[in-house]
Amino acid sequence: MSKKEKVDPRVVRTKRMLTDALISLIEEQGFEKVTVQAITKKAMLNRATFYLHFTDKYDLLEQSTDDMIDELKEAMKTSFVASKGTYDTESPNESFIQLFAQIGTYDYIYRVLLSESTMPHFRDKLTAVLSEFIADGMTVMQPDDDLLTIPREMAIRFYASAFLGVIIWWLKNDCPYTAKYMAAQLMKVTIQGPYKQVVIEQKSSL
């Protein structure tokens, strides 16, 4: 996507219409049955407009999900840096809040894509973001691998899977709690619960 497209509201609006149409059709009939013709019909746009921006439905899906994931990563990274990576069970870290806030912004899209069994690659993308986020947090809490009771990568995989499970539950239940509440609970169960079993020595700030 070019810089011109990023700032052109008409292009942004058109792509959003096509993305919304795609997600709606995926929910109705599954991704494999979706056609470009069906997408443009639901979006009330012509095929020429579609091909001006995308090569096929796979390209539309890839660009749409990449943009969404990139936005999530940027929001979490910015807030993590701003908070200097501090963790306090009494007040949720801003990066945790942004995790749920960003997903909540696109809750319908996340819900559909995470429920679509034929698209494990989207789940993999989100898991990769969660893994990176968790790895950064663990490094802040305990940078020395020798002071971990289990391999770091194993712990990261465990927490990433747990986080993903909580996110899916939250989405399937129509986001019954606020992003801040979810962040607080996730930090509490992570730091006061499982993390204590993994990290032998914790920083005094905790």
Automatic annotation (TrEMBL):
Pfam families, sorted: TetR_C_8 (PF14278), TetR_N (PF00440)
Domain HTH tetR-type: 12-72
Keywords for this protein: DNA-binding, Repressor
Coiled coil spans: none
MF-aspect GO terms: DNA binding
Residue ranges of DNA binding: 35-54
Protein name: TetR family transcriptional regulator
Source species: Cytobacillus kochii
